[in-house]
């Protein structure tokens, strides 16, 4: 079935066509009719499967039809909650693009930037609010953000949202929303605890949609692990980058400090790198993502939090420079490649110290990750580059010394 065959408003179809979306993805095919019917939904789908549009398309269609019938604006009807600023911005962009030809107005209510422009926009009137919890609760408590008209509540990356320590606040928010509302949960992974909470927040007859539970990593992502010494990781990163000079590469590290260190190490060997982590303010983070998206720099070194859920369509390689501490983050990380219909590659650099984490990840995936076996020669070759460089450096130092010597001698002669 094509989007052309759906009974959407022509203005919605126009937005979809402009985005180049002709057919629904699996998750869209399964979710859209249920959302249009007003059902509650618990959808578990792999990352990169078109989850955002799975809720954005029907929400836009329903709200636009309602808006056409309204005599005067009645306030925001849909609230989408997302765990990170980047994800909220991205979801907002999807709503804007699909709803481009409708009269619906949406806003991203996120922290890290001034709140006044957001307040002004809220007072002017919006139909859809996409928010991160912190700023949203701030604006609710200051009474700038009204929730009594919300008919549709969406929790994206629901597992993470509920895990972030926002569960009490979110439950509190539920009491403030009208009883007759539609609740939609979207998530790539879900564990028993979160499942229980989620079920307690939706209607009893909520529809459950789950796509390929057995293998949460998309089939289009070829993922493997390579065993390397902790101190040798940077040479392996350098090697992957140099062997794939035109590829966009996203490397995940454990801490903010390591992100900066890895970027510096790459810069020393002539590879430009961007970093994104919690120490950067929102403007810097947005700027970094823009540069990476536009391809000005092909390597982005990131920590988990900021890179969760980001959608950059053409990331060809994800590198787990450090293995993720939370096993399920493996799925979120490698899901940054192989987006939409594209193929992707993911390599995890596992050191001796990280072997236990690897085990946990494999238990979570319920299968082993393919091991890339490097022959001794190949491993040594990767490090050899460094030895050669050291020699180059020594030669360079000698040349500089010699040059200085001759310069001094010349001066004396004068
Ligand atoms: P998401 O899982 O929402 O992050 O989406 C992953 C990617 O799929 C994004 O780059 C979307 O633009 C793309 N996408 C979503 N729906 C469709 C569709 N029906 N046809 C083609 N691409 C799509």
Write up what this structure looks like:
The chain is of the alpha/beta class and 414 residues long. The chain has two domains: 208 residues, Rossmann fold; 153 residues, P-loop containing nucleotide triphosphate hydrolases (Rossmann fold). Helices cover 48% and strands 16% of the residues. It is built from 15 helices and 14 strands. The strands form two sheets. A seven-stranded parallel β-sheet has the order 3-4-2-5-6-1-7, sandwiched between helices. Strands 10-11-9-12-13-8-14 form a seven-stranded parallel β-sheet, with helices on both faces. Helix 2 packs parallel to helix 3. The protein is globular and about 90 Å long. The termini are far apart. The model has no long low-confidence stretch (mean pLDDT 87). It binds adenosine monophosphate (AMP). The site of adenosine monophosphate has 16 residues, from helix 3.
What order do the helices and strands come in, and which of them pair?
Elements: H1 10-19, H2 26-37, E1 41-44, H3 51-69, E2 78-81, H4 85-98, E3 106-109, H5 116-124, E4 128-131, H6 133-141, E5 152-156, H7 158-176, E6 182-187, H8 192-201, E7 207-210, E8 221-227, H9 233-243, E9 248-252, H10 256-268, E10 274-276, H11 282-294, E11 299-302, H12 304-307, E12 315-320, H13 327-334, E13 344-350, H14 355-365, E14 370-371, H15 376-413
Parallel strand pairs: 1-6, 1-7, 2-4, 2-5, 3-4, 5-6, 8-13, 8-14, 9-11, 9-12, 10-11, 12-13
Helix pairs in contact: 2-3, 3-4, 7-8, 13-14
